[in-house]
Design brief:
alpha+beta, Rossmann fold, Methionyl-tRNA Fmet Formyltransferase, Chain A, domain 2, seven-stranded antiparallel sheet, 25% helix
Amino acid sequence: MRIVFMGTPEFAVPSLRALIAHDYPPVAVVTGPDRPRGRGQRVTPTPVKAVAQEAGIAPILQPDSVRDASFADAVAALSPDVIVVVAFKILPPAVYETAAQGAFNLHGSLLPKYRGAAPINWAVMNGETETGVTTFFLQKQVDTGQIILRKSMPIGPNETAGDVHDRMMHLGAEAVVETVQHIEAGTVDPQPQDDSKATPAPKIFPDDCAIPWGRTASDVHNHIRGLSPYPGAWTMHGDTRLKVYRARVASGQGEPGTVLSAGEQLVVACDTGAVALTELQQPGKQRHKATDFLNGYDIAAGDVLTT
């Protein structure tokens, strides 16, 4: 079976490794361009490219635009039976229709719930206790194709989006291999999605990350962990924007956003209840546990955090 694998970030790496380990090495890999990364902004390959090079896979295509006609021609020249897409760009039909037995995507939710660019974040932000992965055949409308298989996983009450991401990428690798095996065996029974049960998971912008102190403590807790570690929930203390990465529901009551305690822990009032902020970051500094943060930052009970 001639497989073309398309993916860029770390989330896609376990899927590529799993295909190789199960004797489905791709005939080619498509990934994003090399870019400056890290503190030194040194030009480095994508995580997927690094694994492909390590495995000796060639060619490795790195298109600037997936909509360029020359890219569709290059994929067609590979004569793919299957195109596997994991955390890559939205492909035009001219590209994915080149796969003789279909092109499928791995999505980080139990579709049709959480269609969109940020399914893990929104599931955690909304306090879901279960999520999962779905493989589906690509069609023109994003995240709406017929479902091949789904695998579920729990979300712990204090897990962050990052925690879920790191577990999910391995569950996703299992789903990718199983999907390829079903396609090869001719045992796929694709099922249409129920659009009436669809929920959105749109791209998250900076304003979406403001901590909503006017909501319940549970809502605030979910908001913070659902945006951790990226892009990071934030709040204003005077003119200083603080990022908050972890919190827990705490006891206390007061005007929303009011600091109730800033001694050994930093407790802030919500509309109902309060939260203890347990991991924070001030501009230009590293992330710190609350005790270390409070040792180096001037904040006191009675101060008000705003959005």
